[in-house]
Amino acid sequence: MLLEVKNLNKIYHTGKIDFQALHNISIAIEKGEFTAICGPSGSGKTTLLNIIGCIDRADSGEIILDGTNLKGRTSRELAYLRRKYFGFIFQTYNLIPVLTVYENVELPLKLLKKYSDTEIRKRVMEVLEEVGLNGLENRKPLELSGGQQQRVSIARALVKKPKMILADEPTANLDTTTGESIVHLMMEMNKREGVTFIFSTHDQMIMKHARRLISIRDGKIEGDKEGEGL
Amino acid sequence: MKYIFLLALKNILRYKRRTVLTFLILSFGIAFYLLMFGIVQGYKKQSIDNFIQFETGHIKIRSASYDKDDPYSISNYINNAEEVKAILKKKSFVKSFTERIQFLAEVDNGRDSSPCVVVGIDIENDPKVFTLTNYITEGNIFSGGALLGESLAKDLSLSIGDYIYITFRNEQGVIDSIELEVSGIIRSGDPMVNSSTVFITLEDAKRHLNTKKVTEIAILTDNLKKDKKYIKELQKELPDNQIKSWKELSESIEIAAKQDEVTTYIFVIFIAVIAIVGIINTMLMSIYEKVREIGTMKALGMTDGEVQTIFVMEGLFIGVAGAIIGIILGALLIWYFAKVGYDITAIMGNNENIMAAYRLAGIIRATWNIPSFFYAFIISVISSTLAAYYPAKKTTKLQAAECLRTIQ
Question: Which residue among B105, B237, B302, B304 has the highest number of C-beta atoms inside a 10 angstrom radius?
Fold first, then answer.
């Protein structure tokens, strides 16, 4: 078991209003899964992914990652966990605009502080080729199309060979064809590298590629079933 | 650390105009500080040089009764001048010495008069201690003649060959008057000499005052910085004399220069505050514009400390750039004011009292002060880094998830 989430609750306090984004969510994710979390906007998909990815904290509940309970970890410890275990793909790509494609992709490896510059260069070029961006390494993100930027984002998530990649609506800002190609790329990486993918979406076309579909509505799990992608 | 450095560098280059504006404020502050410091040090040096070269020498020996509040009292004769001279001749550090008599008088051209200080100088030995005679522009000094400061001569419409009357009270309090021929005109960098001094020969002074004594002995030593040591040595052998160094005698100049330094520092602090507020503002704007990026960096695994370091480093770069530009600008200004100088009268007007107090006249030049460049660099870098610290600290309070939710 790679990840186990038990009874997660999350409440947002906005002024005098409390909004419960997650109600007693419990799921388990095995290594190598290609799982979609689906549901309408505001259903809690992003909150769940953020908590799984240790970039947000739950109000109650437990997360057990690779056999380790994350309860009570400091923000510094959580940063190191994110550095080591997770890759992130965002709906709006979130590339660092001042860095080139190459520099954006190498950043997670630099953070790990365990590779030489030669090893980093080799790995970055390899992953850029995998996502079909060779030759564009010196471009700045704003000089690329949306699809290309999302490919950079995927390369950035993949480059350190994380145990799990969390993708929050990775195709929402892309046209259908580009969105399809991004999902195919993710599927290919899942197959080839064995990386676990959890992605959120409310796009039916994307959902059909998932091997497991977790439906969420109003912060509660509505369904958990095998997807057509299986 | 390399990627933090790279990110910080790229970030400050992102909004070039804003970055340049921010560090230019700092640069102007530094350039201003360097220039003002150079000018203050320049006039201080010039003031002290004038004081030493025209009035005090390195060390001055007077009678024990000498009162600085009544400096020209005629009763201040040194009674043991021969003993003093004998001791000075034996001291290896004494390069030369000269005797002088100073007393207050009124100089009169027959129509107008002006108060003045009459200084009796030893024609043979005075040039060995003072540079006074190098500044004689017309004529000379000889027995029966008087050397007048240029401004004084101009005020009284006197020229070489004219006659003047010097009226004074002798030691017994009796008013006496002597007639002298204007034998020379002097124009020095010391306004006291130019505007209110009449030089006559020491022999004439003694004869007119009916004395064989002098009021002071000025000494030129081999090292003006060893004044304390030399005074101690002399004082041991001459316990009944008042012995002062150029430093003590020019104390008023030192105080005035210190006050000007303080004024400079106040201006500098004022500019530094503006620069620091500018940096804080720039950094805050920079942080608010990059909230999503901060979220992304944290999501990628950067710790709060690492993200904070990026922004602190941006402040450091602004400080370094501001210091370098400021130092170049300051150096150019100092170079100009050291080479060309500036006319003190253009700044202080014709206020002879102020100029006399500062012992300054004519063109004043700034001086180079290398430690001030070093301090300017350090102050710039430290203050801009500290200015960036507070906004950067804010990033540690930003949660990655909140940042990523921000719409920009």
Answer: B302
Is B288's Cβ below 8 Å from some Cβ in A?
no
- Reported as half-sphere exposure (CB side, CA atoms, 13 A), residue B212 has a value of 4
Q: What pLDDT, on a 0 to 100 scale, did the predictor assign at position B351?
A: 60
Question: Rounded to the nearest 10 degrees, what angle do helices B16-50 and B2-14 cross at?
Answer: 90
Q: Do B303 and A90 touch (CB under 8 A)?
A: no
pLDDT in tens, B50-85: 778 877 889 999 988 877 777 777 778 888 888 999
B315-343 burial code (b ≥16 CB/10 A, e <16): bbbbbbbbbebbbebbbebbeebbeebbe
Q: Please list, residue by residue across B24-47, b when 16 or more beta carbons sit within 10 angstroms of its beta carbon and e when fewer do.
A: bbbbbbbbbbbbbbbbbbbbbbbb
Q: Write down the ipTM of this complex.
A: 0.92
Strand-pair category, A3-14 with A60-65? antiparallel
Separation in Å, CA of A167 to nearest CA in chain B: 12
Selected residues 203-262 of chain B with any CB under 8 Å from a CB in chain A:
none
Q: What is the pLDDT of residues A22-42, one digit of tens each?
A: 999 999 999 999 999 999 888
**Angle, alpha carbons B192-B194-B200 (nearest 5°):** 95
Chain A's closest residue to B403, CA to CA, is A55
Judged by DSSP in three states, A184 sits in: helix
Kindly state the average pLDDT of the residues A194-208: 87
User: Per-residue pLDDT for B170 more than 70?
Assistant: yes
Please list every residue in chain A whose beta carbon sits closer than 8 Å to the beta carbon of residue B404: 50, 55, 90, 94
pLDDT of residue B347: 64
Query: Would you say the pTM of this structure is higher than 0.80?
Result: no
Which residue does chain B place closest to A85, by CA atoms?
B301
Asked if A92's CB is within 8 angstroms of B292's CB, the reply is yes
Please answer yes or no on whether B401 and A80 come within 8 Å at the CB atom. Answer: no
CB pairs under 8 A between A and B: 76
Is-contact B348 B354, C-beta < 8 A?
yes
The 8-class DSSP code of residue A97 comes to: T
Q: Which of A97, A99, A111 sits opposite B301 (nearest CB)?
A: A111
**Distance, CA of B106 to CA of B115 (rounded, Å):** 4
Cα–Cα distance for residue pair A81/A53, rounded to 1 Å: 9
By mean pLDDT, which of A1-5, B286-290, B350-354 is the weakest? B350-354
**Nearest Cβ partner for A76 among B10, B303, B400:** B303
Question: What is residue A95's three-state secondary structure?
Answer: coil
Give percent of chain A above pLDDT 70. Answer: 99
Could you read off the pLDDT of B353-398 as tens digits, one per residue? 556 656 666 677 888 989 889 988 998 899 999 999 989 998 998 8
CB contact under 8 A, B401 and A108: no
Which residue from A217, A101, A205, A120 is spatially nearest to A161, judged by alpha carbons?
A: A120
Question: Which of B15, B17, B11, B20 lies closest to B293, judged by CA?
Answer: B11
**Partner-chain contact B3 A107, CB within 8 Å:** yes
Give the nearest chain A residue to B396 (CA atoms): A75
CA B36, B41, B47, B50 torsion-angle sign: negative
